[in-house]
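Sequence in, structure out. Go.
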Amino acid sequence: MYISITSILLSLGGKCLLNWVLVFLQKKHICRSFLTTFSASLAVFDAALTLTFTILHTRSDGYVVLFGQLLTSYHICLLVQIVGQIHRVLQWPVVVMAAVDHFCTVTQRLHANTLRAMWVVYLFVSVLLWCLAALYIFLLSDFTPVLEDVSHHHMDRCWVFPSSQTLHITLLLLLTLSCTALHAGRLITLSLWIRLISPNSPLTIQTVDQNQTHSRRSFVLQALHKFVLTWSPFLVLLAVLLLLPVGIPSYLDLSVAWLCFFNSLLVALVLCAVCPASQISQGLAAVPPDSFCEWKF
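Output:
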């Protein structure tokens, strides 16, 4: 898709503003999880990128020297495409690392000293992912930039690769959570129906004895309710974007807003998978930090 350079700058500026607003809203949880640390690094990266593009586009002499390299407005299109590819490459590694981090947070209680030291690990992993993604794009991938053969003085638009990878990942996780909730709801309904129809049957006695399993199923439904209630406007937006024939520009594919939404979704999945409500209420399990959903049961 072709997008004007002015539109690219405006959209990047809006993305940067939203990034920093959301980072500020999560200030109490910054560096307490991998996703919050990566969100801060993404906000810094996008701010530096937007500032560089703005300087390149508004310089009266048409060029700027950065780290010994001569950059002109012509390089905006090249950099936008490279950044879009880096965002695309980072999607699944961020998903995997966030899932592992949340799983470790829920399944084991860490000492205060360990928690204070974990931010160093989160920061190191975040920087490592950025570096590995850039190296992959430049050295291993078959990425070929699409550039118009015109003078940089007449360049006013750029070819940008569309991307829907974020929507596909979100859709996959939502389907997983929905199937889990439907399965839990079906089993709860079946248990209640058996109790009403045959209260003295062995199957009823067995169902009554499975209070812990029933509690876990109710917990799944509560987690889904909390998640949907909090993120319903964003879910509607994702549904609209998924139905649109034009994908999201690749340089907007990775944002702090999506990471916040994904964090809540991943917390719900991890809690439903490995943590019964009784452990949370008794303080036997830690809930991953989330600035938007309040995971109290």
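Check: Residues 107 and 207 are 27 Å apart (CA to CA). The chain has one domain: 2-281.
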